[in-house]
Amino acid sequence: MNNEQLMSVAKAIVGKQKGILAADESSPTIKKRFDAINVESTEDNRRRYREILFTTEGIERYIGGVILFDETLRQGTKDSTPFADLLSTRGIVPGIKVDKGTKALALHTGEKITEGLDGLYDRLAEYKEMGARFAKWRAVIEINEHDLPSSFGIRANAHLLARYAALCQELDMVPIVEPEVLMDGAHDMERCEVVTSRVLEAVFTELDAHRVLFEGMLLKPNMVIPGMRCARQESAQRIAEATSRCMYRYVPAAVPGIVFLSGGQSAEDATDHLNAINMMGPHPWKVSFSYGRALQAPVLATWKGQEGNVAAAQKMFLNRCRLNSLACEGRYGRAMEEDVA
Ligand code: 13P
Q1: Nearest C-alpha to atom 6 of ligand 1 is from which residue?
Q2: CA atoms within 13 A on the CB side of 151
């Protein structure tokens, strides 16, 4: 394990006001996104869409890393430049989603467990050969107002995240550790804080036991936020206070970056909340974004599968990247949304 290399890649990904584009939708998930804009999910449409994102001029100022899906890492531009090479040449670190999605956790009704550990070492070695420098594994934590998640469900998912992270570091690939407490449901923000706290505590206990180098990883957590169906929604300020409190208590300062997922928040809310958290800084870690939906939803809605809309979609994408980059410094304001042509 090359500590220096791990630390420098982790730092580069969250370099000066930079965040991550999560473009690692699995085939069923990207189909869902394409269905919503009436685009057929063929291999070439998926390739073309990712090409639109990755060739957008100027994103390297705001994006330090891109998470790809297996198929996408094997694809390239129209003139056959592999996407990993294109990104690296632009100073953006290519990464890869390596989990194989979630299944029901046996004997634990309503809970999920992530698959993908079998053969992972060999898969990581192949991905590294293809240019990936970091990886991502997502654990999904179901939450309700009463009995979910169970402490066993939390422990089982934390253990897998740590097994994955250790394998990555053995191959000098930076692990992004993603324990996602879902936003679905009617629970309030206090409940989300309690559950997120228990999850992060378990995750760092397991990472430590597995000898994972905190300085050579990134954490991708949910923000502390009320469930989408909760009657009491909260201000950006309150969300930022609860999220920061939880991170200060449970995330070691040695971790170079916390890159939040958007988890179903609107693009504007995800940016606003990130901004509010950074306005409370400086923090011991870089506090940035690793957004999927919050970066891509406006782009998909503009593109709609039409070549004639590509320039407008790329403009929209660059603008979202820029606004989130400003939010990394606490310099975003809702009024900036109006400036977009
Ligand atoms: P969202 O930002 O859409 O939650 O996606 C991030 C991600 O990578 C989920 O695994």
Answers
A1: 292
A2: 1
Q: DSSP letters of 76-92?
A: B-TT--BHHHHHHHTT-
Give which of 246, 260, 320 is closest to 291, Cα–Cα. Answer: 260
Query: Which pLDDT value is given to residue 340?
Result: 62
Q: Which atom, in ligand 1's list, is nearest to the CA of 22?
A: 8
Looking at the CA of residue 270, tell me the nearest atom of ligand 1: 2
Query: Which residues, other chains included, contact 211 with Cβ-Cβ below 8 Å and sequence gap of 6+?
Result: 166
Question: Which tens digits make up the pLDDT trace of 108-167?
Answer: 999 999 999 999 999 999 999 999 999 999 999 999 999 999 999 999 999 999 999 999
- Beta strand spans in 228-314 (E): 257-260, 286-291
- Distance from residue 139's CA to the centre of ligand 1 (Å): 11
Catalytic residues: 178, 220
pLDDT confidence bin for 338, thresholds 50/70/90? confident
Cα 106 to averaged position of ligand 1 atoms, centre (Å) = 25
Q: What is the pLDDT of residue 65?
A: 98
Cβ atoms 255, 219 nearer than 8 A: yes
Q: To test ligand 1's pocket by mutation, which of 63, 134, 259, 262 has the most ligand atoms within 8 angstroms of CB?
A: 262
Best residue among 102, 291, 300 to mutate for probing ligand 1's pocket (most ligand atoms within 8 Å of CB) is: 291
Nearest to 182 by CA among 139, 217, 131, 218: 139
Please give the Cα distance from 260 to 14 (Å, whole number): 12
Q: 3-state DSSP helix/strand/coil percent for the chain, to nearest 5?
A: 50, 15, 35
Pocket of ligand 1 (CB under 6 A): 22, 24, 138, 178, 261-263, 291-294
Atom of ligand 1 lying closest to residue 24 CA:
8
104 phi/psi in degrees, rounded to 5: -65, 140
Is residue 221 within 8 A of residue 255, CB to CB? The reply is: no
The answer to whether 20 and 67 have CB atoms below 8 angstroms apart is: yes
Q: Is the pTM of this model over 0.85?
A: yes
CA distance 219 to 319: 25
